[in-house]
Structures are given as structure tokens and as C-alpha cells.
Amino acid sequence: MDFPLSFTLAQLNPTAGDLRRNTDKIKQVWEAHPDTDLIIFSEMVLSGYPADDLVLKPYFMDEVEKHVQELIQFSKSQESAILLPTPWRNNGALYNAAHLIHGGATLHTSYKHHLPNYGVFDEKRIFTSGGNASVAEFKDIKIGIMICEDMWFPDVAGELKAQGAEILIVPNGSPYQQDIHSTRQTMAKARIDETGLPLIYVNQVGGQDELVFDGRSFVMNEKGEVTYQMPAFKEKTETLSDTNTAIAAFDKGETIYNALTLGIHDYVVKNSFPGVLIGLSGGIDSALAATLAVDVLGSDKVHCVMMPSPYTSKESLEDAKALAKNLDVRYDIIPIENIMGAYDATLKEHIKKETNGVTFENIQSRARAIILMALSNSSGKMVLTTGNKSEMAVGYATLYGDMCGGFNALKDVYKTQVYELCEWRNKQSPIIPERIITKAPSAELKPDQTDQDTLPPYEILDDILHHLVEEETAPEDIPHDKSLVHKVWRMLDISEYKRFQSPPGTKITKQAFGRNRRYPLTNGFFKSVQDQRD
Asked: DSSP letter string over 234-258?
């Protein structure tokens, strides 16, 4: 496809708030591409996206303006122009903007019009919507700039076409979730079908708290055909040419696995943790979490600790040891039997163990948390928790116990997906012992315990939860036994206070617990429905 200008796509991994680092990355790309006409960066690349309430801090925006001026001055020594997306103040209002900078000046500024205010997005509270769209003119070419959400509606593209735009450029901060990439390309093609203009889509890459950005920037010609696509979950800078080709798509397992590893990596590295600590139980969740961490951080950055109780099986001890050996990580065994005995002795006059079994099961989990946090305090390493989304949903987790830590590797991964990811990972190289995958899941907090003593089979539980959480389906419309559906709904409802206190974890679904799905902690809706049923 012949473009009237030469373009370089800069799919970068910025850090929210780190204006110095982000500015330096922009300069490095700029200096490396002197022969291109225009370098295109992703949405709010200068501040990182999302910067949330940082942009409401006047001092922060003062610093943003200083760094923009630094880049304008830098442009005097560069042949290329850049499209610099950034938060921006103008006449007392705050905008999500993009500056076209060249030759020591800002040639044009575009403002985002459609401000998303759903799911993880909160832009209407932060930014002012831009006025009428206007084309940018550069080297006698009219460029239509649409910032992220603007591409999802026909009006901005239509206005730009009416003003003579010859190409559409879309800087993005579009977080990953399953199947989102095909939706992006569907929306891009819709704008092309309406305008007949080619389109360049540049997306951010990298982890930012609970969000992970997959990149996968792409180019479409005036027929809506993808002529080039950048890789997923990797920084890359590429100048468009006749030799550019689209990157083959990842399969589902690989895509989710890479999203999780990048989320872990950037949370650990951007927050300057020297590594992670993981309580290794011999079960499948901690096995996957440890494998993810080693794959992305390296074995020298991962410390695994087995903390057996009298209820820990011989098989779990063997499986945890085998996994640690396969991963080549530091592996320590710290029994908790003495700690359990101390709690028993301390509480025996106050709590009857015979009639309060769950209380003493939770003490085991909390004892392990104390050990991990002590090791974390002494080493600086962050505790990586391992609870999956199924457990988080129904409260099958101990507050201040196995929920204790800085980041949750599997927070948005259902238990059935945990099995799928382990099987996918073992196809790449057999690292997780097969018995970990095939044995019945158990918390091992009492004799002969299995998860299914308390929960329905995970394939049934996960399907009910998918309907309740992702699809917001009315309980009466979920195709499972109605008493079971209401039981699961009640467990979901009463566990909100636990999830509110849980560590962040990478979002991979459209309804992740955390900043994506927000329900009141005090919530009488379930009870009112049950009262009507009764």
C-alpha cells in the first residue's frame, strides 16, 4: 500500500507517571528514525496510560508541560516529526490530546472526543471532551487523528473525511482482554468502509497495575485489509514499507499466558521488587504461578517455600519438590506444625476446636502468610499470591491468609483455565509434574479434604460464574440447577468484602474483579430476591 508520507509505528511500554523515562524512550525512538516523515506513538505515551488521578494533580501537569517543551526543543535537531499523545491543559480544561510536533513547534493538537466511562475507564471524570474534529496538515497531506475511543463511533471519522483527510491515524491505550483484538479490527474496518481511507492503529504495550496492554498495532488499507500487524506483548518500532507483513496470530493459550507473564513482569520490575516469593503447596494454582514467574523473571528471581502441616500429603511434598527442581528455583521447607500448636494452646480456653474447624483451618493459612511476609520483609521480594478467579468469586480463600501478598498471578483466571494453561505450558516443555494436573484439588487443611467437599465441580462452577460475572445473566436464566445457581450467587455476593481487600492481578476477561467490576460491599439485593422467592 502506498502512503503519501513515510510512517514509523512506535509500540512502546511506558510507565505511568515516569515522565523522565517515557521522554527518554520517545527521544531514543526519534533519533533512531531520522528518515521517516512521522513517528506515531500510543495514547498518552508521555504520562503512561492510564495515569488516573495523577493528571488531576496540578504539579504533575506542570511537569508534563515541561517535558512537552523539552521535546519541542528537541525537535529542532530532528528531521522527523512525531505525533505525541499526552494529557494536556488548555484554557483551564484538561484534555486527552495528541500533538503533531516538528521543527521546534507544535503544528497541530487533536483532542479526544469520546471519553470512555465504563469498565476500567473513568475518563469523563478526568478529561473534557474535545470540540469539533480538525485535520492536521503536514507536508501537504491532510491527516485525520482519532484518539482511541473516537474510532469506535462514526462521527469523528466522518468529520475528518469531510475536511479532506487522506489517512486516519489512531493512537490507542486499549487494554487486553480475550477476543478484544478482533473487535478492534472490526471497528477499524467500519470506519474505513464509511470513509474509504486507510488507517494506522498504534497501541500501547505493557503491564500497568491490573491492566496489561497487548500492542498488536496494525495497518489497514482503504479496502479494510490488514497489511501489517505488530507482535503482541512486545515493544517494537517499525517503519512501514512494501516488505511489512502481518504477524501470525497467537493461539488462545499462548495469548493468555503471555498476558499473564507480562502483567507479572511489569508489576515486579516497574515497582523495583528484586523478585517474588511464592508459597508452593504442591497444588496446581501455585505450580502455575511459579512457572509464570520463572518464565518471565528468571529462576534466580523466584523463591518458593513449602510450608507443610500435618495434613499435607506425601504426594504434595513430592510434587512441590519436583516442580521446584524443574524450575531451578530456591526452595525451602518451613513446617507450620509448631505454629499451629502455639495457636491451639493460646486459644483453647476461648474457642472449642471440635466445633470450630474452619477457624483452625484458616489459622493454618494465616500462619503461612506470616512466614511469607517475614521472608518478604527480610529480602524485599514481593509475595505473589496464587488464588484463581473461581476461588476469589465464591470466597474459597482466607483473608489475611492465602490472599496475603502484593500481586495475584491468577486473579482473573478461572480454575478450568488454570488446567488449560498448565497443559499448554507443558506442551512447550514438560515443567509441571503431571500428577499436579491430574490429582483432585485440595486445600489440605483437614484430613481427606477436597475442593468439591464445598464447591460444585469446577466446570459447572465456572460456567455459572461466567454467567453471573461476565454476562450479568439473571440467575433464573442460567441453565443449571436453580438451587445450585442461587447458592453460588450467594457465595459470590457475600465475598465482595474479601475481594475488596485482595491484591491486584492482571485482567484478562471483560469483567475482572477490582477496578473493572465494582459492587457495594453492603448489598441487600440477594436477600431481597431470596425473600421474594421464599
From this structure: S-EEEE--TT--PPPPPPHHHHHHH
Q: Could you read off the pLDDT of 261-289 as tens digits, one per residue?
A: 999 999 999 999 999 999 999 999 999 99
| Residues belonging to the active site | 43, 112, 148
The CATH superfamily holding the domain 7-249 is Carbon-nitrogen hydrolase (3.60.110.10)
pLDDT tens digits, 383-441: 999 999 999 999 999 999 999 999 999 999 999 999 999 999 999 999 999 999 999 88
What CATH number labels 274-529? 3.40.50.620
Question: Can you tell me the distance from the alpha carbon of 504 to that of 410, in angstroms, rounded to the nearest whole number?
Answer: 10
Cα–Cα distance, 67 to 273 (Å, whole number)? 27
Quick check: do 7-249 and 274-529 share a fold? no
The structural domains of the chain, with segments of one domain joined by +, span 7-249, 274-529
* E strand segments, 247-381: 276-279, 302-306, 330-333
Task: Return d(Cα 473, Cα 464) in angstroms, integer.
Answer: 9
Q: How far apart are CA 450 and CA 46, in angstroms?
A: 50
Q: Is residue 178 very low, low, confident or very high in pLDDT (cuts 50, 70, 90)?
A: confident
Grid cell locating 103 = 521543527
The pTM is what? 0.94
Residue appearing with cell numbers 503447596: 281
